Structures are given as structure tokens and as C-alpha cells.
Amino acid sequence: MLDTDKKRVQELTELLNRYNYEYYVLNQSSVSDQEYDSLLEELKSIEERRPDLKSPLSPTQRVGGSVQEGFKKIVHQRMMLSLGDVFNEQELIDFNARVEKDTRLQDIEYMGEVKIDGLAMSLVYKNGELQYAATRGDGNVGEDVTANVLTIPTIPTHIKDKRDIEVRGEVYMSKKTLEELNKKRALNNEPLLANARNAAAGSIRQLDSKIAASRKLSAFWYYLVNAEELGFKRHSDSLDYLAELGFVTNPERERVKGIKGILNYVEKYREKRPSLGYDIDGLVFKVDDLNLHEVLGYTMKTPRWAIAYKFPPDEVLTKLENIVITVGRTGRVTPNAVLSPVRVAGSLIARATLNNEDFIKSKDIRIGDYVYLHKAGDVIPEVSKVELSRRDPSSVPYVFPSTCPYCGTELVKSESDIQHRCPNENCPSRKINKLIYFVSDYGMDIDGLGDSLVEQLFNEGLVKEVDDFYSLKEHETDLMLLDGIGKKTFDSLVKNIERSKSNSLEMLVSALGIPLVGKKTALELSRHFVHLRALVSASKEELSKLQDVGEKTAEVIYNYFHNEDNLNLIARLEALGLNFECTSIVQAKDNFFKGKKFVLTGGLASSSRNEMTKRLEALGAISSSSVSKVTDLVIVGSDPGSKFEKAQKLKLRIVYEDELIELLKESEGGKDEENK
């Protein structure tokens, strides 16, 4: 018997997908809004009556509705590499020269594209149907955000090509949409969205797809991952094909020839950038001939056949309303500019660091001045100079405070230090920042304990010292009175805190916040001494002999572990059941790598550099970023660069990948590459 509901669902799905494409992609419509809504309601009613016919890719899912528990992880079939960045015309010239040298060709043809300031995304299709949408993540593993991406009406759920296809692009929010959303949020007394990029990324990572749908996101698609396998010879042709399949590709792309074409394209979009309906933070140039991609190859993180040119940072003028002082966990005092909120490179900025007293004096920065603000590296807000023509004649030079604004202690500044410091160990600002550092990813990495919650816990008297975190489970009633803390949140928080007790020693050593001891030094200390008790009792001489410690750091560590308050804290942490042993090192037996300092340079075929570093560190090897006389091993992959040359000059032990794999098999007790 013919299933009439099934047939009608197929008909309605095809019609609604076609009308969506006409309206959102072609900017035209062959039906009225009333007719479209009527068809959509009919499909909804059939799906409600026949849940077995409801597909995750149904047009009814475009409006969102499901609330997810979380995002599952997706392992990318091929790594989602980022592009190398350049910041001026000379670097573009150098890039083109390298491409010409490596290909032995001149006047290379490139595809010039605008660089959308959004969230990188991958779409995977099989048999013409969307399988999933995933974020970039760390390049190897992303998050499955299909439910939210489906709310973007321009993304096709079905395509006519039945082959396996992966398409990559950028999800973004238009300037107009951001402006409209912020108007609504202002009326509702909600915080404004800072910029389009953050708004797009935050929308995609909403667990409630209805919220994602309400944000009216868009997407451009700029890369057909398996283009060569599908028979394409040029990147530009593959983009044209994506457009044929129904994907929105950016019309601002242009094929250019040689460095002259590249620089002309830069000049064109330097002027055109403000008029675009979306934010761009640069331009991208890709070698158009796909055959040359394999010739040029890849580094571990970036393709050598493409480059991203970043525009110089925007500079805007705004008023400096005040200068406020913050005191960090080590007592370091930092002056910060409080600014009239202003948008810089897409972000709304109200504060910027002023570094130190000398910085303020050198630029003669005064409260009430109008200052020029830009983003250093397009990331960190920075005051560049004062607009003296707008200075109030009655203004006076800023006088740096002599006492701590939080505890009243007199600030200190040595001749060799440009920073003022608060020497009071019990300064409330220092204490709060120590607590924040302890639970951050620099320390014990306890999920759920954000900066504002930690400060709240301190102010409520629930956490005064770091060991108090491990007693929070006894304060359920008090915590449940705090904003945003319900039973589920409390249980999750307690679980995460308890789990941190088993962290390897290096995480605890880093979390203690010993001056001059970061994650890398903490790892070396932990692997050398294995147990915290051995580290506590170490002499200055023993500490200073370690490769990355030195006399100054050794003295700081020695003094820390000979302070009675610190020893009492360690005793309390031990009584609470925290792990004091280094569990990240293989202790069962000695092996070739144990204790050896290594530098890894070039790309590896067997794994990523990050994975290999972790594998070697698990055997007790010590990672270093620079080659020196004390380096034991230099591990060399493809395209190794200057570190390899320096290793040869110093006549250091060089290990190539084939030998590395054999040494790993021996050191790990015969484990092969597939079972690592």
C-alpha cells in the first residue's frame, strides 16, 4: 500500500527546500509568504502525527527547537588547518617569491578572497545528504553543531552530487543583524553583543537551537576539501561548482596574477572594506592550480600554498575617563584605562592596560584626555598616543599611587623592576587572583570555577585559601543561595573539584603560584623529584642544576618551600587527599627518552607534533622550543628549518622519524604506532 504521508512529506520537503534556496540565496521568491507558511504548517502537522517520518534535516528544523545536553566530538577526516598570517606588503612579496622559487614558475595565478571574521565550519555530505556540521576545534577534533547550523537557511541539507563531499567555510553575523539584535537587547536591559564574530560563535555554541535560529546567521563557503579527488584542476573552478550545488560563495573573490595582482587586490579591499555588509579582518590568497598544492606542501599547522593578509589595526579616538589600579596574585600592580566605550576592529572596548608608571609618563597620559586606541595584533586593546589638541588646559599629570588601593600597604619598586608591587601577602586582591589562578587551566583546571564565581566565593567568606575549595561540598546551602547556583550546578562543581584531587603533581606545583614557576618549569620539577615531599626538601644547589631552573628561580622555589604558611598549606592539601606524585611520567622502568631534553622541528607523517610531544613527555622526556648545547635530541621531520641547521652546527644527536618510531617501540615496551 502506498504511504501517502511519506510521499507528501517528500513533496513538501523538496518544495520548501527550493523556496528557501530561492529566497535566501537567489534573493527572489516564486511563492508568497502566506503560501510558504501554509506548506510549512502542513509538514509540521504530518510530522507530529507521524514522528517516524520526521527527519533531522526537515525544513521544520530550520527554526530550531531541540535543547542539547552538550556537543559531541567529531574527528575531522582531514585536519582543519589555519592559515599563516602576514601583516604588510613586504611579507606578501616574500610569500610570492617563495611560491615562485618552490614551483619554479612565475606570474602564479592566485584566488583572492576576503577573510570573513566568523567561525570556521565543516560540512560533510554522503549520498547527497548532510551528515554533520563541525567546528574547527583544535584542527583534529571539533564539535558537532549540526542542530544549530541547520537553523541557517542558506545551508543546503541535500545536494545533487551523490559523492562524498566535504565543504569548509565561515559562519558569520552581518553588521545589520548585529545592530538589530543589540537594539532589542538594549530595550530588554540585556548586555550588548560585543562584536559580530563573538556573536556568531556564541550563537553556534548555544545548546538551545531556538536561540541559534533567532540570531539570523549567514555563511560563506570557500573550500571544497576533496576537490582534486572530484576531478577539479583549479580552486576557482571548485568554488564555481559549490555555487552550482547551492552553497553561498562570496562574490568578492577574484583571480589575480602574480604579486602585482595580489597588491592591487589588497588596495581595492582596503578601500572597499567599510562598505561590506559583514566584518572582514583581512584577505586570503590561495594558489589556484591544485596540482601545485602538493608541490608546495604543508607545515604542521598551515598550508604553504595559501596566506592570510591581516589589515593594519583600526585606530579610534575615545575619552579616557579614569585610571584604575589592579593587583595580581604576585603583587604586580597594573594601571588600566577606563574608556568611553568605543568599537575597535569589531569589538566594543571600555578598558585597556596602561602597563606601568613609565608607560603613562612616556606618553603623558592624563585622566580626561582623548586617546587613540588600537588592538595590538588585532587582539589586545592598547593606547597608542594622546590627542593633545583636545586636552583640557586644567588637566594635571597623573600621579601613580604610593599605596595599594585594596589593602593600603605601601607599594614597592626596585631599581631593576619597572613594575610597582604590593608586598602584602594578605592583600585581598592578591588573594582573589591567587584563588583564580589555582583553579584555572594554568593550575588545577577545575571546570565551573570561573573568575566571577571565585571572587563571589571569596567575598562571601566561603573560600579564603586554596584548600577551601575542597571543603565547598560541606557548604551546599550557602552555595545554593548564590546567583546561578542550582542543585545540578552544585553537584557538577563538587564532582569537578573532587576529580582534580587526582591531577598529576605538575598541575599542583603550577597551581601553587610560585613566582617564576609556570607550567613548563612545574613539569620539569615534578618529573625530576617525582613526589612533592622530595621537591619541598630540595636544596638550592639541587634545584639550580635543573636545565630550565637557574639560580634565581631556584632561590625563589627554595624560599617558597621554607615559608611556614606555605608548608602548612601543603600539609592541609595532603590531608584533604590531593595527589602529590607525578603520574604523567613512566616510572616503571628506565627508557631511552627518560630525562632527555628534546626539540622537535618539521612535520611528522605518523602524528601531529603536539601528539608526539605528549607521547615523549609521557616517557619522561623534556620538551624545549629552542636548540642549545644542552639539548640531547633534535627530532627532525619534513621541512625542519633553522633549528635543524643549528643542531648540525652544534653536532647534536639528530633523530629522524623512522628511527624515532623504532626508539618509541622499544621505550614503550613494543607498542606499535597504531596502538600508541
From TrEMBL:
Listed SUPFAM superfamilies: BRCT domain, DNA ligase/mRNA capping enzyme, catalytic domain, Nucleic acid-binding proteins, RuvA domain 2-like
Gene Ontology molecular-function annotations: DNA binding; DNA ligase (NAD+) activity; metal ion binding
Binding positions for NAD(+) per the UniProt entry: 33-37, 82-83, 113, 136, 170, 286, 310
Residues in BRCT domain copies: 588-668
Reaction catalyzed: NAD(+) + (deoxyribonucleotide)n-3'-hydroxyl + 5'-phospho-(deoxyribonucleotide)m = (deoxyribonucleotide)n+m + AMP + beta-nicotinamide D-nucleotide
Pfam families: BRCT (PF00533), DNA_ligase_aden (PF01653), DNA_ligase_ZBD (PF03119), HHH_2 (PF12826), OB_DNA_ligase (PF03120)
Listed GO biological process terms: DNA repair; DNA replication
Binding site for Zn(2+): 404, 407, 422, 427
Keyword Zinc: yes
Enzyme Commission number, as recorded: 6.5.1.2
Top-level taxon of origin: Bacteria
Active-site residue numbers: 115 (n6-amp-lysine intermediate)
Enzyme class: ligase
Keywords: DNA damage, DNA repair, DNA replication, Ligase, Magnesium, Manganese, Metal-binding, NAD, Zinc
GO cellular component, one term: cytosol
InterPro entries: BRCT_dom, BRCT_dom_sf, DisA/LigA_HHH, DNA_ligase, DNA_ligase_AS, DNAligase_adenylation, DNAligase_N, Hlx-hairpin-Hlx_DNA-bd_motif
TM helices/strands, residue ranges: none
Cofactors required: Mg(2+); Mn(2+)
Family: Belongs to the NAD-dependent DNA ligase family. LigA subfamily.
PANTHER family reported in the protein's UniProt record: CHROMOSOME TRANSMISSION FIDELITY FACTOR 18, DNA LIGASE
Role: DNA ligase that catalyzes the formation of phosphodiester linkages between 5'-phosphoryl and 3'-hydroxyl groups in double-stranded DNA using NAD as a coenzyme and as the energy source for the reaction. It is essential for DNA replication and repair of damaged DNA.
Name of this chain's protein: DNA ligase
Organism: Candidatus Scatoplasma merdavium
